[in-house]
């Protein structure tokens, strides 16, 4: 698969990346070995950019996959897949110590002496000041060689635009898709054009850009080629992160990338399930109100929405009403 340089960094990544969230405990909860095998398959086929997060609890899959890769490469001369893989992780905490701990934890759990890319996770409008401690930790970690590139992930146009002006920031991981689902600006919604403008501002000053939620959290998967065509068609986006939970998902992407996909093909989404990403949910209740099956309830511990799969009809009514794209289909 084609590789690109991430902005002005010295990091080269595959045009498509592997989002590990879907296989983890909050979604498919795959056994470690099964998830690791999907990762190995993708890496074997040229997808060498992996996105994870402290919050996802998916480090064991990546560690196992890297062990499998190392074992299969034993005795081979020169740098192989193991050295070629670029790992990105991120942390939600705002303070210095928690961010520094998260970086050390990632190194330990992934058995790496450094993490290629580490981000402030899901920065919202107006939060950059509150997260100054975490940002300082990232800068110090980079100076210490624990991290090669630093930046932030966000659903917000104004945060993406601000990233262009952050001198020490190397990369940005914004949300964008062809419909503009889930793009925010303050408390309101924004358009894909507004987000693209912010992304282009980042790209123009040499920030590396990799995008998330090309399928809007699953709502656009039935429009597979249109959704991918939009993000891969943007010169300002270096790489596109896509969540995979099974080998056939990887195969679909590979056939799209190499141009062998039937132009009429769109994946069968009839067996997919609806999940609520607890990291994004704000407990507003819109999904519960829209659900005709009474399948959404509030988790009594944290007040956030969850889906009862025994009742869910996978009608999808809950997805478009969620203001933060926390309803995902996988
Ligand atoms: S997909 Fe339909 S039935 Fe399932 S939780 Fe959403 S609205 Fe309810
Ligand atoms: S609509 Fe979205 S933010 Fe609101 S409760 Fe449902 S999942 Fe959470």
Task: Describe the protein in words.
- By secondary structure, the protein is of the alpha/beta class.
- The model has no long low-confidence stretch (mean pLDDT 91).
- It is globular.
- The strands form five sheets. The chain has an eight-stranded parallel barrel with strand order 3-4-5-6-7-8-11-12, surrounded by five helices. A two-stranded antiparallel ribbon has the order 1-2.
- The chain folds into two domains: 3-257, Alpha-Beta Barrel (TIM Barrel), CATH 3.20.20.100; 274-329, Alpha-Beta Plaits (2-Layer Sandwich).
- Helices cover 33% and strands 19% of the residues.
- The protein binds iron/sulfur cluster (2 copies).
- One iron/sulfur cluster is lined by residues 276, 281-287, 305, 321-322, 324, 326-327.
- The site of one iron/sulfur cluster (SF4) has 14 residues, from helix 10.
């Amino acid at each position: 698969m084609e590789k690109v340089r991430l902005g002005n960094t010295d990091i080269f990544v595959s045009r498509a990346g592997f989002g590990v969230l879907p296989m983890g405990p909050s979604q498919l909860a795959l056994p470690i070995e099964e998830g690791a095998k999907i990762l190995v398959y993708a890496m074997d086929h040229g997808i060498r950019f992996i996105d994870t997060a402290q919050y996802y609890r998916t480090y064991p899959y990546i560690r196992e996959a890297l062990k499998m890769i190392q074992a299969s490469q034993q005795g081979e001369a020169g740098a192989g897949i193991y050295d070629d893989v670029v790992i990105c992780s991120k942390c939600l905490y705002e303070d210095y110590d928690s961010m520094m701990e998260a970086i050390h934890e990632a190194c330990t759990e992934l058995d790496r002496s450094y993490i290629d890319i580490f981000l402030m996770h899901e920065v919202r409008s107006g939060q950059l000041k509150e997260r100054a401690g975490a940002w300082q930790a990232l800068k110090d970690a980079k100076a210490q060689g624990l991290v090669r590139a630093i930046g932030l992930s966000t659903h917000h146009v104004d945060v993406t635009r601000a990233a262009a002006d952050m001198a020490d920031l190397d990369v940005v991981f914004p949300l964008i898709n062809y419909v503009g689902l889930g793009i925010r600006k303050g408390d309101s919604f924004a358009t894909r054009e507004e987000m693209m403008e912010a992304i282009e501002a980042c790209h123009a000053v040499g920030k590396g850009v990799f995008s998330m939620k090309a399928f809007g959290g699953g709502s656009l998967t039935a429009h597979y080629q249109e959704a991918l065509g939009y993000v891969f068609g943007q010169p300002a986006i270096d790489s596109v992160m896509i969540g995979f939970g099974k080998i056939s998902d990887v195969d679909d992407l590979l056939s799209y990338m190499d141009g062998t996909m039937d132009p009429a093909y769109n994946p069968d989404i009839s067996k997919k399930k609806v999940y609520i990403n607890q990291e994004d949910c704000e407990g507003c209740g819109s999904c519960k109100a829209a659900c005709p099956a009474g399948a959404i309830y509030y988790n009594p511990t944290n007040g956030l929405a969850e889906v009862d799969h025994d009742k869910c009809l996978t009608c999808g009514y809950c997805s478009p009403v969620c203001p933060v794209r926390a309803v995902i289909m996988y």
